[in-house]
């Protein structure tokens, strides 16, 4: 663990946690703002275009020298909070390192929208991307990582072409967060708390069961999936599910690489100044080039 990572990790408990309880989550939802605007860091490495798909904004980033690979990236925020500046910073570094074009679907958030709404949008974005690009990847962080895995399972089952690969950054894979599985790591996580997250998962499920693979893809069939890179920290409430995902994918015969960073907090690659973050982006870029 680097000194910068340790320093950031010690400061994080000073931040308020919107997921501390169901009440704090709803309070945070009531005061949330819109998506962060595209940053200058993104505009330095890519041209930016927007379109509307199924009534939602989709932002497309195209690098100056594209490699031919295309990434559909779904952002995190426990399905209730919009894309933030840190997401744009992470995407800028991925675009620069991999020369990959990126679609960023700004899907509707809970409680106004649910998983069912999101997949309607994501299906349309994916169908357009596979018609245009020879190599399409799916990726995302936290809740967005769960959506990326859920999409891959859905496209396998509906006969669509499979994505070339998956890049999952601290993915949220089971919104039920079974207490026995997370008890030990919950005391280590400075950012996430289970009670508020479970409430967010309940809101996101809508009429679906919270264990439905569209909501909790860890409960779905993990066979027949494309190569998957999982980037995870071990001081993250979602670490146990990442380990379980790798175990189940391996058992099902799906190629998977799990990279765990000691002392890594939730979605640590978004903090670009950390040596561990730079290494994670290099690994992500290698996966997107491969």
TrEMBL record:
Superkingdom of the organism of origin: Bacteria
Pfam families hit by this protein: Abhydrolase_3 (PF07859)
Keywords: Hydrolase
Domain Alpha/beta hydrolase fold-3: 71-268
SUPFAM superfamilies the record matches: alpha/beta-Hydrolases
GO molecular function, one term: hydrolase activity
Keyword check for Oxidoreductase: no
Official protein name in the record: Acetyl esterase/lipase
